[in-house]
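Changelog note: in this version the structure field was regenerated for every chain. One regenerated record is shown below for reference.
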Amino acid sequence: MLQQYSFDFSWLPGALPIFMQAAFLTIQILVWSAVISLAIGLVTGQLLTSTRGWLRVPARVYVDFFRLTPLLFQIVVVFFLIPIAFDVTLSAFTSGVIALSLNYGAFFAEVFRAGVQSIDKGQWEASQAMGIPRLRTLRRIIYPQAIRRMLPPIGSMLISLTKDTSLISVIGVAELFNTAQNVGAGTFRQIEVLLLVSLFYLVLNLPLALNTERLNRKLNLA
């Protein structure tokens, strides 16, 4: 069947500017969501390790909810529910970034929690014996060691985040996948359009994967 298919990319020059705009929008979504979700994960990860229940329990509820419910459901809920519940106006772009950030923030929280708890407790006890404050212990002693163990899962999560930006096409954001659907419907060349989109995602993710691996090797050799 594929041998009988005739590939046609004659539509590409006219559609390429649209795809470049969509790629730029996808990068914006990725950057905003990555920065916000990492910040959420860093804070929530520390709350998960707290001995105070009033801090740990709400953090655990948040993490479990966003880890155990579908991301697509969360995107739709944020897009429709937040404007109704809080009487605010949110663009589809902002709603998508919020949903992605909350979802990946929950996963990053577990990464940070596991990384911190993987460090030998003796280092905590030694810091306490020397009178070093907890935050300084985290910043100067724990995280420099834990980051080496956290880097591979963080890199993998960022790659997954890049791919999951396609899910916010469901609320009308004109990122790569949404644009591919529109161009494919207009040109009737769905296969060629999907091949082009896969190339865009590969171009976005390959440098991220390579740099993560390079940094991982550098940190583990240091």
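Spot check on this record: The mean pLDDT is 89. The chain has eight helices and no strands.
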